[in-house]
Amino acid sequence: MKILHVVQAYHPAIGGSEWLTRNLSEHLVSRYGDDVTVFTTNAYNTETFWGTKGPFMPAGIEKVGGVTVRRFKVFNGLQLLRRLLAAGSRRLHLPYNDWLRTIQTGPLIFDMSKAIANSGAEVVFATAFPFLHMYYALAGARRAGIPSVFLGAIHVADKWDYDRKMIYRAIQRVDAYIAHTTFERDYLIQHGIRADKIKVIGGGVEASAFANADRTAIRKQYGWGDRPVVGVMARQSALKRLDILVQAMPKVWAVQPKAQLLMAGARTSHSSHINQMINALPLERQAQVTVVNDFSEDEKPNLLAACDVLAHPSGNESFCIAFIEAWACGLPVIGARVGAIPSVIDEGQDGLLVRYLDPDSMAQAILELLAHPARRIRMGEAGRRKVLKNYTWEIVTDRLRAVYSELVSRCADHLL
């Protein structure tokens, strides 16, 4: 099958959609022998679409992991004007303010829709909202009569990015929609999307890599010994609310004074704020916070395995791949009781849910799990079973390809 995937950024860029698209693309090549092409931008970081001047990768075509990757040059000028138009139109409730916000978000690419229409693909898949390339994918696919699939990754708590009527109008026009969770599916149905158009597939993980992770390697590297370790694995963005976890830790240390905090994730323009919060802690507590920036995927299993619990304060999630990666390592997880997260975590079985943006609630959940090792083990084992049943890359890829096959077959029947 000749497949085109369209995504805002791609390896070596770091992010949830980037990682998802890479794994789905490479598994379709290796598992089915499909001809997979990725259209993406030349950005390392999506912040360059609207907020910074770079850096950028070279535009052009290359082969990555058996996948043909074409990187389009992004226009990221007129940033101040775009921001002013987006913010002002939203504040004044002007018509088409959702379009102005989407143009501000970008990526602005002037030849992508035409390239999609001329790609010769049998099916076009695009992820994720609120980025502008989703509309390029829809326009190009419809121009060429190619079946189209969206994986929108809707973050319902983020009103600025996702409270846009144009998103739901676009979803109504695609041939199929991939939801990460039943929560997202039900949310879209409430917004007028036909239920038979939506398929739930979840996210994937390379289970064997996490099951065989070395718990002691990172602990030896940082001299933690057998101290309790609370981990978070998230991009250092304001949306991930890492400040809540930093604020929770003094309450944890009051009961568990030897606890360590591991914060691992890609740096962003918000990283300096996180560093300021850590530096404001007493010196002895600063020494109990370890920040690991921009780690490779190969390092991830050992980083997670070194932890006793994964505590993820973000509410800006459509699924949260970090949960299933933690489960694959046999860890219990803590997530916010908001949006799609309660549909991913089975509360009391494989993790705990806390009040969103509440450091006290987060600290209480951390202390509950640190105090009961046997319960942590039971939750971690339940999480691992759930991953092996639902969330390996093989399972998720098979689910996605079944959607592609149905659409391509339906299109062929229509042409007969």
How would you describe the overall organization of this protein?
There is one protein chain. The chain is of the alpha/beta class and 416 residues long. It contains 18 helices and 14 strands. The chain has helices spanning 16-32, 79-91, 97-105, 112-117, 133-144, 159-162, 165-173, 182-190, 207-211, 215-222, 242-253, 271-279, 283-286, 300-305, 321-328, 359-370, 373-390, 393-415; strands at 2-7, 35-41, 60-64, 67-72, 123-127, 148-150, 176-179, 198-200, 229-233, 260-265, 289-293, 309-311, 333-336, 351-354. The strands form two sheets. The chain has an eight-stranded mixed beta sheet, sandwiched between helices. The radius of gyration is 21 Å and the shape is globular. 47% of the residues are buried. The model has no long low-confidence stretch (mean pLDDT 95).
Instruction: Tell me the domain tally.
Output: 2
Class based on secondary structure composition and strand pairing: alpha/beta
Share of residues in helices? 40-55%
> What is the name of the CATH superfamily of the largest domain?
Glycogen Phosphorylase B
Question: How many distinct beta strands?
Answer: 14
Distance between the termini: 19 Å
Strand order of the largest sheet: 3-4-2-1-5-6-7-8
Count of DSSP helices? 18
CATH architecture of the largest domain: 3-Layer(aba) Sandwich
Q: What is the radius of gyration computed over CA atoms, rounded to a whole number of angstroms?
A: 21 Å
Mind describing the biggest β-sheet?
8 strands, mixed
What low-confidence regions span 5 or more consecutive residues with pLDDT below 50? Answer: none
- What is the name of the CATH class of the largest domain? Alpha Beta
Percent of sequence in beta strands: 15-25%
Mean pLDDT figure: 95
Name the shape in a single word.
globular
What is the CATH T-level topology of the largest domain? Rossmann fold
Give the assembly state of these chains: single chain
